[in-house]
Design goal:
Three copies of one chain form a homotrimer. By secondary structure, the first copy, chain A, is an alpha/beta fold. Chain A folds into two domains: 126 residues, Methylene-tetrahydromethanopterin dehydrogenase, N-terminal domain (Rossmann fold); 150 residues, Rossmann fold (3-Layer(aba) Sandwich). Chain A has ten helices and twelve strands. The first copy, chain A, has a seven-stranded mixed beta sheet with strand order 7-6-5-8-9-11-10, with helices on both faces. In chain A, strands 2-1-3-4-12 form a five-stranded parallel beta sheet, sandwiched between helices. In chain A, helix 5 links the parallel strand 5 and strand 6. In chain A, helix 4 crosses helix 5, helix 4 crosses helix 9 and helix 9 crosses helix 10. The first copy, chain A, starts with a strand and ends with a helix. Chains A and B meet through strand 2 and helix 2 of A and helix 1 and helix 9 of B.
Chain lengths: 285, 285, 285
């Protein structure tokens, strides 16, 4: 019996990245669907819930993707509420790669340094990856600050994290060198999750910073978020500071996504969202 | 050479149910297409007619699905008229699961009792499954009545059966307990194919009914069509009456659909619509 | 690692023909995408560029199809400009089958007769296949004339060939028996690429023509482009003249398309458009 992954994408075209990665993760067949909403998803879901009985049902699983995390979360909630009893399939949510990318970055940081009781800052952290990273850093015991150019936006992002995941993180405004320097006071860890091509952390701030020991950057388009980082750095030690560039993290992200898809076919009752994915990725190292 | 099934769906999204079942039935690859009409189907059809010569052509086949049986039938007619000589592929029509579901139900009833000369009633039988079931019951030699809440609707349904399949069945109105009791007078077999969640046949009528010996219900959402039936009953004997619930029938329906898809790849000239599918399913038991 | 072909189609439905042929050519999985433009293609392309590192990247390739060659060429140009360094995948362009069909026809003609210094005429040659054929004939050393019912249209077609491929061919008007007879004066080779069902070359002109030695016709719907040709003729010798009908050429076209798709997975840096495809097809014979 073929392992069939139902790829539900909220965008106008289903992601090629997710499909290729699913095949590499062990799916035999990926059924690609796009423009999926909580309304049109139900009959599609029934197509995996009711076609394979008994042990066979674990050979059908669901992947939720697309660029919009809020839409992906709404789909996940709808799907979970339509399962009943043993009539359920394993499901993974990774809209915009938010979970696997953030999990890969934080797993690398947490391997570098014990995060318990440390201050961690996610610069430009209100996007899908930044918020997941803040959650994982917080779960690791760090005291987390999420920054934005607008304090209000950072505040709303923190509210979201508390409402959906019960995580408490601090909002802060960081819009220039001075405010960035200030928010990093006493921080051990910093992660940049800003817009592609935008430098957020000048070398003059990070290099030789008194407390910063582990730094990571997820911006893959130069100029990078951390000035003068190497995109392929994967634990580069620069005078006692350890740095991870976007491509260094990207390898683990890709492996993480493949691994998680593979897990979906082991039982029929997995729900892989943020924390479940982080747990898997942390053990992968 | 891979066995490729061209899934032509008349709905806005192609059915996941049909795709998964096709893979389980032996297709190596299912090419999923949606929003298919008699106009846009032609170039797609050419894509299976002209890509594999000689013996190879039987490795490409066509499946017509979607929620609208009339649209599916129009597609089937167009496809058949576009084949010529040896340039043809096997094709199966099962819009809304009409053929495989009705075939599974009637096959179970016909195994229970010899239908020749008996009266069979299809309650709320003007939908796609009910009409196919009426056809199969009629072909088995039963004298068939199809009911609706509106006599006119039942009449039109019977006209359709005569026009498309040359089958003669009787229309009747059944909208409450009295009219239902009346239409069942002298009936040996009853099948409920009404709307999900609508009870059609109260226990006070069916239980211990003088002539009713075999009863089946295809409504899978409680309350079921036959009051106090068990959804998983698969030939349950209740005081001499034999009952089949929706999930009991559903297992055979699923197996029927897989088997029929598998048959498509044995030769290149099968046309599996109502009667051809019933023949296959009857032999499966 | 599965060989994955990203099928990018510019039409509203992705071609079934191209998908089936890709599977027969060696693709394990074809990801079908439709309505592709230079704008929406970029994230899809990233999905094959960034999912498989090192040697693995050659297991992902791109196929551009659809009925509109200009749209296909625009896609090809966009795709090529988005590759960088080793981050690239092999890509094939064959919108409307233009390259494989024309290559098959000209390969057959060039096997029949040395084309160097000969006059070759492409009747009704301003469509996608005719233009590619004119290019290949010209590359083989023939002096090529492309005809149309309107001289202006033929002229524009020739400009296109010079602008995109640097090939010089002559435009001519051929709209009736006299003008057709005139354009064929001194010609050794003629290829008909007109509209399906339109006869372009009456037997009274071609049969026993003083100089015409090799004739080919790509119109597969009777009446054929060359009067009284056999659709399956594959090098039929009629009194010293050699003729190729649409189905005779079609076999090689199909084999050519399969072979080219297979090549895509051998390295990650092939760009198979007109000339590269012709080279492959010529060696196939």
């Amino acid at each position: 019996m073929k392992k069939i992954l139902l790829q539900l994408d909220t965008d106008a075209q289903p992601s090629v990245f997710d499909a290729v990665t699913a095949y590499d993760g062990g799916a035999d067949i990926v059924l690609q669907y796009c423009a999926i909403t909580p309304v049109n998803v139900v009959p599609l879901l029934h197509g995996v819930m009711f076609t394979r009985g008994g042990e066979g049902i674990k050979n059908s699983a669901v992947f939720i993707g697309g660029s919009d995390v809020a839409k992906g979360e709404a789909l996940l909630d709808t799907i979970k509420s339509n399962f009943f009893g043993k009539s359920r399939n394993s499901v993974m949510h990774d809209s915009n790669g938010c979970n696997t990318t953030a999990a890969a970055a934080v797993a690398k940081l947490s391997r570098t340094i014990d995060l318990r009781g440390r201050k961690a800052v996610v610069l430009a952290g209100t996007g899908p990856v930044g918020l997941r990273a803040a959650l994982f850093l917080s779960d690791e015991g760090a005291s987390v600050t999420v920054t934005s150019r607008r304090l209000e936006k950072a505040g709303k992002a923190c509210e979201y994290l508390e409402n959906r995941f019960g995580a408490k993180v601090e909002p802060a405004k960081a819009h220039d060198e001075d405010s960035t320097r200030k928010v990093l006071e006493g921080a051990t860890v910093v992660l940049c999750t800003g817009t592609a091509g935008t430098m957020l952390l000048p070398e003059v701030i990070w290099k030789g910073h008194e407390t910063l020991k582990a730094l990571a950057d997820l911006n893959a388009v130069p100029p990078y978020g951390i000035e003068n980082i190497g995109a392929r750095w994967d634990g580069e030690n620069v005078g006692g500071q350890v740095l991870f560039g976007p491509l260094g993290i990207g390898k683990l992200k890709l492996k993480a996504q493949r691994t998680c898809v593979g897990r979906l076919f082991e039982t029929n009752d997995l729900v892989l969202d943020a924390r479940e994915i982080y747990k898997i990725v942390k053990k992968m190292q």
